[in-house]
Structure formats: C-alpha cells, structure tokens
TrEMBL record:
It comes from Methanocorpusculum petauri. The keyword DNA repair does not apply. Keywords: DNA-binding. PANTHER family: OB FOLD NUCLEIC ACID BINDING PROTEIN-RELATED, REPLICATION PROTEIN A. SUPFAM superfamilies: Nucleic acid-binding proteins (SSF50249). This is OB-fold nucleic acid binding domain-containing protein. Residues 414-469 form the OB domain.
Amino acid sequence: MDQSQIQQITDRISHKLESKGVSPDRQSITDKLASYINEFGVVAYEAERKVLSDQMRQYDIPEDDSSVTPPSVPEGGVYSLSEIQPGEWVTVEVKVVSLQTPTSPSIAQTGVLADSSGAVRFVVFAKASEIPPLELEQWYRIESAVVDSFREVPSLKLHSGSRVTPIADDRSLMPAPPMHLSDLTPGVAASIQVKFVEEWETRSDRMLQTGLVADTSGKMKFILWKDEGREKLTLGSVYNIFYASVDTFGGRLSLALNSGVWMEDEDTDIPVPVVMPVPKEDLPVTNIRDLSTGYASVRVKFVEEWESRSDRMMQSGLVGDETGRIKFVLWKDDTKEKLVPGQIYLIKNAKVDEYNGRLSLGLNSAEYSAADDGDDIAVQGIAPSAPLPVTSIRDLAVGFASLHVKFVEEWESRSERMLQTGLLGDETGRIKFVLWKDDTKEKLEPGRVYRVTNAKVDEYNGRLSLVLNNAVYEADEPDVDIAVGTALDAYAGTIVQISGGSGLVKRCPVEGCNRVLSRQNFCPIHEIQNDYHYDLRIKAVLDDGHKAYNVLIGRDVTEALTGMTMDQAIDLASESPLGLEEVQAQFTEKVCGRYVRCFGNDFEGRILVKSAEFIHPDPSATAELMNRAGASLGGEEQ
C-alpha cells in the first residue's frame, strides 16, 4: 500500500482520537500501519482496527462498536466457529448453550452459541425485530451474521439483515476437548478442566463467589455473579466447565462462569496446591526473596506509598527488607489503620498473591504492628547514590536507570497531583514517564533531548514506565536530536517449527487487500487473481523453554536470516519440481532448530518480528527444546 493510502488511514484514526480530546502522535500511527500492512501483509482494515484499538487503550478511551467500518465480505458456505474472524459476514449452524440478561435496551438478546469446534458470544440487536427470540438448547442456521470484536473479545452480531432458521433435525453437540488455561484467549472457553484452589472474599453484593481455579498450565481468576439457581463451587474440587466467558481486565484474563455450565469430576485430581484459609497460628518470619503464594509473616520497612487507584483501596505501596521489595494492598476496613512511611513493621499471616507474574501482600487478613526492636532495615532496591550508566529503553528493567532520551509526546494530565506525563524515546523505543507535582521540579520541554540520571523504572499492567521525581534531568543543547525508534519487545528461543505458508508466497494485488493467495491463486475476498505479486516470509514457532510464540518474519528479516533474496527464491521455485515448497523446505533447513533473538510486537497473538539474529546457546538446552517440541512442517496456509 502506498504512502498516501496509509496517510488516509492515519488521518481517520487521528480524527477519531482528536474527537475524544487527545493529541495523538501521527508519525507513530503511520509507522505502525506501514509495518503491519507493507511488511507483514496484515489486511488494511485489520491493521486500522488494531492500531486504533491500541491508541484508544493508550489514552484510556472507551472503545465503541463503530470504531472501524468493516469491509465487504464474500458469500460462502457454513463456517465452523473456530474459523470465523472479525470483519467477516458468515453463515453458521450452531446451538444456543447459554442466554443472559441484556445490559442495554438496544440489545434484544445475548448469550453463547456453540458447535463442535468452539463457542462464541452472540448479540441480537433490538432493531432486528423480525428475528424471533432464540431458544435455549435449540439449533439454528444463522446467515449473514457479522463477526465483530470488542476489547479483544470476538462476538457474533445478528442485525436486521441476518436470517435465522431453526434446524429441525436432532443433532448432538460434542464440546471441543478441554483447553489449558494458558492457551485461553478472550471470548468463550468451550471446555476446560480445572481445580478450585483458592476462594477470595467477595467485594460486591452482586457477587456470589470469586477466587482462583488452576490446571497444570497455570491459574486464573473466576467470578460467579448471583443468579437464581446458581450454587457455589467447593474448594479443592475438580470441575469440567463448558462455555465460560473469558474476559480481559487490566491486562489479565479471567473467567465469568454465569454463561457456562459445570460438573464436578469426583474421579479426577489435578496436582496443583489448594490455598487454605488464614492460618490460626502465627507463621515464622520469611524473607521477601523466599515468598510464595499462600500466607506468610514478614519483617519489613514501608519504603514507598502509591496513589490509590480505587475508592475501595485504603492504602498501597512498597515494603521491603534486605532481600527485596514487594507491593502491598490494604482495602478499606474500619478495623485497620494505615501504615506509616519509613516505619518498620512485623506483619503476621499476610496473604501472598500473584499478579502478572509478580507477588503482592494483602494485609486485610494480617495482623501488623510497628517493630520496636530498634534495628533498621537496609532495603534492597532503594535509589542508588552514584549515577548509573546510560541504558537504552529496550534494555530497561524494574529498578533505577539513567537514559539519554528525547521528549517526543506530551499527554494530558489525568490527576491533580500530576505535573506532567507523556512519552520519552531513544533509538530503541519509547516509554511513558510521569512527573508528580513538586516545587523543586520543572516541566520538560517537548522536542528537547534530556540526560536523565537515576530515574525510577516501574511496571504496571506489564508495561514499564519512568518516574522522574527522584531523578536528575537536564536538557542538551537545542540542536541535539535523537532519531526515536518504535518500542520493541525481545524474544529469544529455538525455532522449533516452520509453519505452512512460509517461504515464497503470492499476494492479492487488489488495492487494500494484500492477502496470501492459495495454490490456485485464489483470494478469499477477490477470488482468482492471476496478476499477483510475490513476497517472502517465515511463519514459525519460537520456544523459549517456558512458552511457545507464533512469529511472523517479513521479507527483509527473512532474507537476512536465510541468506536468500526474493529474486533467488523466485528462480529456485521456478526451476524446482516442488515449486514454492522447495523454498519452504530450504528455509526449514536453514532456520529450524537454530536459536534466535527476535525484536518485535505482539499483533493479536502473533509476534511481528522487526529484527532478528542467530545466537549460540548451550547445545544441550537446544536439544531438550527440540526433543520436547519437535521440528516438523505443519500448520495451515493463510
């Protein structure tokens, strides 16, 4: 897609954001669109939707259903629910497995539909009066339904143009095999098998039960709202749960059970620990470094108080000892008193939770008192007294750091306590900063380059940010500039699989499409295309020993990794009896089993790689990964 077309999309996104009262970074939007569309072959509509969604989330703007107008979609046969994608108009044959009470007068009906491949939420709009109410446990053929996505959750929307026909023949519904919690994505979980491992105190009159369920892949929060006929789960029991909703909040997934059904499985156990109620006897004091989920007693110093982000929160911040620091939370409770900054406390039987891979202390279940033994605590992680060496944004970690950065974007302050906030950048990426009101601090000047010494690096919802109040910062001369790059995440591991659709591919030439064509030069939108153009890419699975990532590597990086240019790939495919498969086979030989460090961004579950390099790890570690994951061709061409 040429620059003028990308600029038109940038203008649409920018106007949408400006109508919400913010001033977006247009160049950043243009760069992301160009990367998605031209480098990785993402359809223009999907790229626009993704960038707009990311921008609205960045500025805390609620998304609406009309953010991007979906393109026209071709007629087709019956889709299985596992095949549908946002933006498509589809025909499906499904069973109504759950109905919920609509939360808006514009919605006539909502619930969950399922077939043997999966499940999806559905909405019938009130304006579609010609659609009769769908009945629970009934099968239907639904034609011309729109697949939409809101806050990363797919749904099927039935409107005045949709056609709904009951299916008379007797069909059985076999749910899909249980999925691991670690593999769930926002939407509906057709089937999971989990153990109820921890029950939490409910913090709403509408809530019947909440806590954690777990399987061998991890843990996940669940919520069960009060509903007639619903019964609580039993702590320690294993359940088969069908059609629970998977929501995302604060960057984490959680299960809403009201849309689902479940059965206790008395003959099965899952080897995960159950967190029992607060111990009746005081636990021995544990170092922060040695904490794990459950309950613990600690002797700590209150080192930092944070602004409360909820009306229900009395106090939060950091406590620490010689081995580390940990977040604590104290919810509003008339029987509790706030902690005093700088004071040392003995905290008995505090609840230790895990969130985004980090532990935190819940003090409402604990007893705490000021320690009167007179011994101070030298808390690990307090700001260093000597200047730290300069670190690039890409290499930052929680703690303290010095940087050489440019002030690239100023944001509107959303708190009376905030003096300034926005984005700083260097050649490796960008990062949010916050400067709280302080008579000794001055605002930064947009566009200027600064040397920042010993700034605090925090993490919130999986993203790093800088706090400048304890840092020293001074501007360079006005003529000093930095070419600011786009923030990239790093991934390192073994490429254990080269997937179908890798190598030399043909793309649809129709303006704004760019989809990969089938072997018969067929585009799913524009049918047969003989005037195609070539592209080079690698679709692969990268395994770091803890998690497997789907990665997509564009032409430039593919050429660098394989040593094969696109012209060479075209010649190879034309001369070999295997055609395009010969290119994929050679890519597999050159890349599969190699250890790679990639830099890129997540695009709806796939890492779009902007740069990559081979590295040389311990050979035994690579062999272990290859034996576990298997290096074989696989996957469907898309």
